[in-house]
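User: What would this chain look like folded?
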Amino acid sequence: MDIPRIFNITESAHRIHNPFTSDQLATLGAALRLEAGARVLDLGSGSGEMLCTWARDYGIVGTGIDMSQLFTEQAKLRAEELGVTRQVMKSPRFFESVRSRGWG
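Assistant: Here's the prediction, encoded as structure tokens.
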């Protein structure tokens, strides 16, 4: 069974790929007292909603890694949509698929 493929099919239309809501992600960001320039590593970043919104709302810099090439591409689009591309994509691998590195 190809779990990443099944996950791509079932979750591809979702912006957040876990049981959190947008409000809960905002609450978590506030509870962490994120400051501009803070660095965040998001393993299993999905479509990048957490990193992109925190980059917009708190000014964080982050790296997202996910198994899904589809979700990685969606994360890049989300960064563009929220206007955080220049801010967070300081590295060419801001969002990277595990498979593109040969890890999965």
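The mean pLDDT is 78. If you want, I can go into more detail on any region.
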